[in-house]
Amino acid sequence: MSETRPRKALIIGAGPVGALTALSLHRRGWQVELWESRDDPRGKDAAPSNLRSINLAISARGLEALRSVDPSLAEQFQNEAIPMKGRMIHHVDGKQESQIYDPINGQCINSIGRPLLNQRLVESLPSEIKIRFQTKLSKLDLNDKIAFGESVEKKSDVVVVGEEHDDGKIGGEGKGNTDNASNKKGKGKQSMKEDNEPTKFDLIIGCDGSWSKVRNSMMRMERIDFSRSFIPHAYIELHMPADPTKPGGYAIDKNHLHIWPRHSFMLIGLPNKDGSFTLTLFLPFSSLSTITTREAASRFFHEHFPSAIQIVGEKKLLDDFENNPRGNLVTINCTPSAWSSHALLLGDASHSMVPFYGQGLNCGLEDVRVLNSVLEKHKISATTSLELGETDTELELALKAYSVERQADLQAICELALQNYTEMRSHVLSPFHHFRRLLDSV
Ligand code: FAD
């Protein structure tokens, strides 16, 4: 009988989904290698004002997934996150209206910065996992299960979710990165050096986000149904600093998700631990293109968001508006999400959704939980006696089962996210809306 050895997973992308996948497979006894094109986030300051990136609402779905890998992780994030028990609607006249999500059972969603969440997950990875930062997947041979990386010598310090790599360029830039016309912050210069040595694997897992290179390679091997659609809105991140005169620094209520709904556009605000709020403006690109001067931007904010000007200060709000990137918002569906026993997609690489249901990351983390349960059900052991490069029929069946099990749920949640797009910016203003929600929760 041939000797057994641990199964080897090569994971591309150390975003939140890649990091949790690495931890989970390591705990199952697999040999794990993780490549990330960005810098090592460990030990860095992930405070909201230092790294521009979105705030996430982590929900029961995401917490359950974290718990399934390591209960202490879920506990840690719950301690670091801020519970939001409802929406606070900010009307144009300055009136605020609280709409509690679950008045009966008090369920909440929880605000946490993506950089902090990502950093904590990467910090939780044990030293047995080989992590290569500043390493970008450059070439992939799925048939022979061989990958090549290239080292990225300098990356931008700006972290924007869904940043595209080579294949995702839309006229030079893409989702989650910048609008070509209005981005004032260039990326840091990069120089690449390709590996000479191939890296072999049993299974490559693409956790490389919306512009996944692993997915591109899979699509050359298999008839994969793939769709991608953009909504007309851009997102721009703004920052509401802490107010030292207020308790905890919170200028507005800390335990709400704040929404300034204006029908065809909206501003939202999620709390940070330091008393600041991360604000996100969602506005159609067509409207953005009409705001071409600082004066026009000032008129826009005075007309639609006077209370935000009052709290943040006009200069700060306009500086952020002018300087921060314009991100695209995209829905991606990809089925199946596995190819043979060789490749699998998790997280945004397999399903990107617009952020209005606050479930993109939660679903990505849930992918890891479901994958674990499928590996368990199919009794996929941590070791194999196959040679590296051979097809693993047991694993192939398990990955197929995973893909089938996830398909309907993922399509449904992408659809719900799109529906909540109109709900948040418009329906929440209806006087009957809150009454209906209250009835729904009984
Ligand atoms: P990503 O976070 O995109 O990470 C992918 C990683 O792969 C990156 O680190 C990247 O550098 C790396 N990478 C890419 N290509 C390569 C390569 N070739 N080689 C090596 N590394 C590579 N979700 C929620 O659940 N709740 C929310 O409230 C929420 N709010 C959001 C608000 C906004 C404005 C946006 C845009 C998204 C929001 N989301 C939310 C969605 C959430 O941010 C994403 O679903 C989540 O970040 C996906 O995680 P991921 O690990 O799959 O991918």
TrEMBL record:
<dbReference type="GO" id="GO:0006569">
    <property type="term" value="P:L-tryptophan catabolic process"/>
</dbReference>
<dbReference type="GO" id="GO:0005741">
    <property type="term" value="C:mitochondrial outer membrane"/>
</dbReference>
<dbReference type="GO" id="GO:0019805">
    <property type="term" value="P:quinolinate biosynthetic process"/>
</dbReference>
<keyword id="KW-1133">Transmembrane helix</keyword>
<keyword id="KW-0503">Monooxygenase</keyword>
<dbReference type="GO" id="GO:0043420">
    <property type="term" value="P:anthranilate metabolic process"/>
</dbReference>
<protein>
    <recommendedName>
        <fullName>Kynurenine 3-monooxygenase</fullName>
        <ecNumber>1.14.13.9</ecNumber>
    </recommendedName>
</protein>
<dbReference type="GO" id="GO:0070189">
    <property type="term" value="P:kynurenine metabolic process"/>
</dbReference>
<dbReference type="GO" id="GO:0034354">
    <property type="term" value="P:'de novo' NAD+ biosynthetic process from L-tryptophan"/>
</dbReference>
<keyword id="KW-0521">NADP</keyword>
<comment type="pathway">
    <text>Cofactor biosynthesis; NAD(+) biosynthesis; quinolinate from L-kynurenine: step 1/3.</text>
</comment>
<keyword id="KW-0285">Flavoprotein</keyword>
<comment type="function">
    <text>Catalyzes the hydroxylation of L-kynurenine (L-Kyn) to form 3-hydroxy-L-kynurenine (L-3OHKyn). Required for synthesis of quinolinic acid.</text>
</comment>
<keyword id="KW-0560">Oxidoreductase</keyword>
<keyword id="KW-1000">Mitochondrion outer membrane</keyword>
<dbReference type="GO" id="GO:0004502">
    <property type="term" value="F:kynurenine 3-monooxygenase activity"/>
</dbReference>
<keyword id="KW-0472">Membrane</keyword>
<comment type="similarity">
    <text>Belongs to the aromatic-ring hydroxylase family. KMO subfamily.</text>
</comment>
<feature type="compositionally biased region" description="Basic and acidic residues">
    <location>
        <begin position="163"/>
        <end position="172"/>
    </location>
</feature>
<keyword id="KW-0812">Transmembrane</keyword>
<keyword id="KW-0662">Pyridine nucleotide biosynthesis</keyword>
<keyword id="KW-0496">Mitochondrion</keyword>
<dbReference type="GO" id="GO:0071949">
    <property type="term" value="F:FAD binding"/>
</dbReference>
<feature type="domain" description="FAD-binding">
    <location>
        <begin position="9"/>
        <end position="376"/>
    </location>
</feature>
<keyword id="KW-0274">FAD</keyword>
<feature type="region of interest" description="Disordered">
    <location>
        <begin position="163"/>
        <end position="195"/>
    </location>
</feature>
